[in-house]
Design a protein that fits this description.
The chain has helices spanning about 20-30, 55-65, and strands spanning about 5-15, 35-40, 45-50, 65-70. By secondary structure, the chain is α+β, with helices and mostly antiparallel strands. The chain has a domain at about 15-50 and about 65-74. It has a four-stranded antiparallel sheet with strand order 2-3-1-4.
Length: about 70
């Protein structure tokens, strides 16, 4: 990564409760380069801020037990 701070949204599936939301947020925040993360349980997505690699975020979410994909703005 070039060190440029940015925001990226990810689809997260498999979350059913606030414990799931907290688990995903914790996993994302523990990823290198993440400055902040917000998970929306109802929408099934996560917004991440920082200088992270997308692949690292996807891996963190998947290792926490959830499916994930990058959301692309249209």
């Amino acid at each position: 990564m070039n060190g440029k701070e940015r925001n990226q949204s990810f689809m997260v599936s498999g979350m059913t409760c606030t414990h799931c939301k907290a688990t995903v947020e914790s996993a994302i925040r523990a990823t290198d380069g993440v400055q902040d993360a917000h998970v929306d349980l109802q929408a099934g997505n996560a917004t991440v801020e920082g200088t992270f690699e997308d692949a690292a975020i996807l891996e963190s979410i998947q290792e926490a037990g959830y499916a994930a994909a990058i959301l692309v703005d249209k």
